[in-house]
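Practice problem 4.
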């Protein structure tokens, strides 16, 4: 009996998650989406509704749970687990009064204890040292943080003050033209663990199994251009741009791609690699790729940020200007400044709302920002 019913239960659970994520249970004010991926790619900077903004609630001494929204909320549409398999109820789990989101007493919304986030001494197994030398921060590479996070869909009265993508028809003319003509297009994503999709719900095998940001980007291109796009991802976790130089020919240039997205810098920054040395390495990667296929176009991604409280926070914020120098000096090369995007987010939200390991890996929310920003450069907005 159990062997027969278990697969049915799992199938129904997955279908239920997909139905919620795809917007099959829309509420007033929500758009209707055909898939989880389409909903995930609705730009955070467009319109009066934000879909599934992430939060990790942390306990406080005064018992007031701080909830930091990107924009001033005017109406809460839904509150769900980041897994998208549970919806929290107004009046039981939360309330919204006078523009303030309130976690109710005895709510089932998860709240991380402050003394679990901040520990007095470093433990190799599950913490990283704090940058200020005062103890350590909790750290996990599994689904721990993902399963504690919630997502809120809400109406708001704010405006995005960070970078907004501009269609790159003039900067990446060959790739855009091939997409518009529905010709075969190959895209390579070449970077570190963030490009691998480290701690995305797909990779940790936790609901809602949202694809890594490279796949989200390609899915969006395929929807927009109604044409299949070939995607190759030879990225590797824990590496720097120096590794990229060594591996560029084998892993990137050999693919003869139309577009290569080069995305290093997180580990370089943690290792305090000087911006000039980082620039030389990225320049060498670009030259190696173009020595094989001269008309390959490239996107250089300035990295998102590491936890500012962790020792891993180093030179990440210094790399965008040198990437701009490379792209300004070459045709068919552009820079996407995810550093500035993350900096703007952190003006309004704590780092814990944007991470899946509490050190340097984006959660599904920040991964969506990566995919949305780059897609905005490759798809003309009507």
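Answer key:
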């Amino acid at each position: 009996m159990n062997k027969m019913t278990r697969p049915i239960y799992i199938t129904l659970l997955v279908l239920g998650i997909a139905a919620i994520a795809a917007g099959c249970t829309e509420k007033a004010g929500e758009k209707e989406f055909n898939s989880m991926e389409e909903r995930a790619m609705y730009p955070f900077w467009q319109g009066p509704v934000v879909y599934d903004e992430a939060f990790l609630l942390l306990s406080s001494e005064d018992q007031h749970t701080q909830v930091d929204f990107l924009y001033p909320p005017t109406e809460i549409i839904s509150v769900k687990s980041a897994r998208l398999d549970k919806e929290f109820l107004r009046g039981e789990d939360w309330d919204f009064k006078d523009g303030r989101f309130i976690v109710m007493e005895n709510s089932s919304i998860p709240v991380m204890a402050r003394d679990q986030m901040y520990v007095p001494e470093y433990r190799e197994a599950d913490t990283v040292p704090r940058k200020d030398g005062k103890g350590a921060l909790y750290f996990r590479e599994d689904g721990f943080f993902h399963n504690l996070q919630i997502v809120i869909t809400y109406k708001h009265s704010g405006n995005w003050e960070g970078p907004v993508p501009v269609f790159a028809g003039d900067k990446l003319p060959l790739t855009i033209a091939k997409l518009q003509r529905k010709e075969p297009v190959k895209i390579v994503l070449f970077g570190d663990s963030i490009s691998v999709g480290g701690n995305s719900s797909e990779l940790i095998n936790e609901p809602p199994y949202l694809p890594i940001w490279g796949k989200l980007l390609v899915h969006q291109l395929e929807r927009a251009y109604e044409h299949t796009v070939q995607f190759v991802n030879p990225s590797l976790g824990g590496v720097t741009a120096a590794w990229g130089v060594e591996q560029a020919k084998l892993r990137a240039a050999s693919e003869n791609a139309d577009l290569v997205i080069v995305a290093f810098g997180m580990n370089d920054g943690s290792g305090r690699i000087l911006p000039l040395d980082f620039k030389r390495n990225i320049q060498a990667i670009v030259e190696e790729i173009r020595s094989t296929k001269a008309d390959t176009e490239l996107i250089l991604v300035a990295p998102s940020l590491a936890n500012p409280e962790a020792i891993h926070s180093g030179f990440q914020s210094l790399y965008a200007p040198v990437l701009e120098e490379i792209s300004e000096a070459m045709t068919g090369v552009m820079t996407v400044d995810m550093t500035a995007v993350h900096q703007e987010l952190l003006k309004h939200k704590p780092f814990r709302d944007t991470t899946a390991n509490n050190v340097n890996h984006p959660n599904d929310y920040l991964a969506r920002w990566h995919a949305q920003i780059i897609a905005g450069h490759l798809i003309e907005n009507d």
